[in-house]
Amino acid sequence: MGSLSNQQSQHDDHTSMEQVAVIMVPLAAQGHLNQMMQLSCLISSYGLPVFYISSAIHIRQARVRVNGLNPLDVAKIHFHEIPVPPFASPPPDPNSSSKFPEQLQPAWNASLSLRQPFAAYLQEMSEKFKRVVVVHDFLMAAVVQDVISIHNAESYAFNCIPAFSQAFFIGEGVLDSSAERLKELHSLQGCIPEKMLEFVAIHAEPLRYRAGDLFNTCRLIEAPYLDLLEKEESGGNRKTWAIGPIVPTKLSSAAKPANKCLEWLDQQEPKSVIYVSFGTTVSLSDEQIKELALGLEQSKVKFLWVLRDADKGDIFDGQVRRAELPEGFEERVKEVGKVVRDWAPQPEILAHKSTGGFMSHCGWNSCIESITMGVPIAAWPMHSDQPRNTLFVTQVLKMGIVVMEWEQRTELVKASAIENAVRRLMASEEGNEVRKRAEDLAATLRQAIEPGGASRLELDSFVAHIIR
Ligand SMILES: *[C@@H]1O[C@H](CO)[C@@H](O)[C@H](O)[C@H]1NC(C)=O
Ligand SMILES: *[C@@H]1O[C@H](CO)[C@@H](O)[C@H](O)[C@H]1NC(C)=O
After folding, report:
1. N or C, which end of the chain has less CB nearby within 10 Å?
2. How many domains does the chain have?
3. Which residue intervals define the domain Glycosyltransferase N-terminal in the entry (predicted)?
4. 186 catalytic per annotation
């Protein structure tokens, strides 16, 4: 698959001095662990040894939830555990007015203590390899900052959100002059709590040590925003590579796994089903779940609903809340809908011919999978970059509709509003238009990641740069 095969794929002491090692440092949150895992497989396909570094808990999480990747590709990654001190792992609060996953904060704070052991590991690796390349989550910059004291090491930030949303975070000065649309969402209020902003601030200074940026996005859809970010960095010699969409490699070729979601989809009409999932960081209140259930039922549209509670810092730690559905709901809808509470194969669901829409919180993993599979989105943003991603998907890409305006985020979304959004996406002229647009975009993006495509060329260029 890789076009630069002069590197050995196996880590071998005899040859390692000529080799470049790539060390991946993800943030301990599912969406981030997942994108970093996919990126690891991609870089490894060029024949470079790739090391994936995290706590034992989060490496286990990343591995058990691998979605759509070829096991043979995952087997080539070297997983390296670094102990973190014990951290609290409280349950999410489904009744909180903010949907931000504050329950993950203790795990993230604990990750800051990886700095010293990581520095020691880096030192060791720098003696074994010609060059050590650290690719770290934006929010792990403080952990990898000692890279600057090692002569044959360098670091690159991996951005897990679209450039559009990232550009917004830079500040209004930039927005005023360059990107009219970004002004529509002014404040971070309700997106990110104060405590998290403090955590983000810890990484600001160390981020200045990075040699460049990788984006899980494609220049064909984000050129103006990538340009904006590059302009902000001018003066330094940082480079930006837009290498996305990073999607599982296996989907296009290998057979689908046996799974009850996919078997159920097999029995439905093409593009007839709306897939409903709000990712791994959102816990809906009992009241909201009831409205959602009734809204789906009243829409009379077929649905596949993944109903899960948000992750805890340690997903293996104890009981998880099992949300109640309205009395008799599953029995009443059994001809038209399916509710799933297990981990679902989302990329395969979105790639399935029966799936015609996605009701989503607009986390970037979900957006990018939906965009690449040509599935239009009914956007219901919850926190962080999601309100901006929603704007990007619905107003810039025009491949989605909005379920709920961000201004109404503290209100209960009523069954009638949900019913209306589902019908607009799945059974209206407007829905057909955004679906057509989603399908066209998917064709463009899938081409971009083929050999010679826009994003593939940028990835080739990144790999050529690090093995220079
Ligand atoms: C959330 O509120 C409901 C009542 O509105 C209550 O029954 C439930 O126990 C609360 N859940 C938690 C986890 O606090
Ligand atoms: C995490 O660290 C931030 C920033 O130092 C601090 O404000 C916050 O209280 C800490 N939170 C937890 C849960 O440890």
Report:
1. C
2. 2
3. 18-248
4. no
